[in-house]
Amino acid sequence: MKNLFDLVIVGAGPAGLMTAKTAAEMGLKVVIIEKKRDINKIRRACCAQFVMDNGYENESLQIQDNKVIFTRNNFSIPYTGRLKKVVNNYHYSPNGHRIHFAHSDGRPFAFKFDKEQLLQDLWEDCERLGVELRLETLAYGGKDTGNSVKLDLKSKGKTSTIEAKKLVIAEGANAKLTDTFGLNNGRGLFGTPFVLIYTIGNTYGFEPGSWNQYYGRAYHPYGEIIVAPSLEENDTIELTIIGNKQLLPETFYEGITKNSPLRENFANSQIVDKQGCSLRSYAPLKKPYLGNVITIGDSAAHVEVIVQGALMCGYHAARAIKDELQGKNGFEEYTVWWNDAFDFNRGEFNDFISLYGSLTMMPKYTDDELDYLFSLLVGKVLNGNFSQFEVPKKVWNSILEYKGQIETERPLLFEKIKKIDNLKL
Known about the structure:
This protein is α/β, with parallel strands linked by helices. It contains 11 helices and 22 strands.
């Protein structure tokens, strides 16, 4: 068929653009469907830091010469934007007891980057390679015919259909099209958190280039808040607040900035920007493909794979498509890689949820108990990772070194933490 594409991709985020770039480099005819007007204008709250942990998601990144190099997966992407080092990672109790992570040699845990520039750099490569991009277009349905995939589109009030040999869904964590094509059948849904990221200028007292997490009801009734560096001036930070449909994140903003232990830090501050999103928190897909359709990145994950994970998914998905079109088992090979690369895919997912849930510390522990636990590690510098999965484990492992003292001094608290000692930290 004359107008049949080799590949149609839904979503022009990092996963979708990386899929398109890699597939086009291999000679495939590619079209991207994107509902936004501008792919590099971001209003959705999202992670925008490269994690530099050795072995994070089975990868070790290098950044040099306007490139991000994936040394283990053997590819690189262009990046011409700004970078800011994240050298120290701090965790605070309500009364200011601090757990400190840093590398002994001073190397950064992560680099904050400009996601809009990263998307622009990726798209310029795609455009040069002849990838077609259809903006302001919603993919709202479709059918896998067995020989190809037909995708139903809506753009500016008009409907149409596009056909391709294979479909890659890179639509993000809400996974609506993933559901349409039957990949969510039997998949657990844990809830829909709402997230706001405020960019706030003229703050005081936050260490430049540091990542800070604050625990306790003094800040938030059931979760930690995050103060992260911005790419702007050093007195500008990014404040991340999580809520839900009943308790929206903005309802906590005034309490944090006016009434919490951080109120002096925000005394003269001003909101510069605000980004938000809602996320469907699914169990990850152990098998992320069905027929001629594969779903990648956040669409197949537990909440998110962050940008570098999305880029890896796109790279491997494109290679899988090429193999599939040549009669090989590309989707199966992708699935093996996918299940091995990400923490939430390893072992039993219920065990992962139990472990991760126990490590968030809220709302199980009172502010007084958090102050006591954090005080045990004051003055120590833990040499560890920036990973959202590894850092809490190391915090608890360090606290549990004092379990004898805790049992003597705080027997009721000891009963609370006793089960953690049996988890696979």
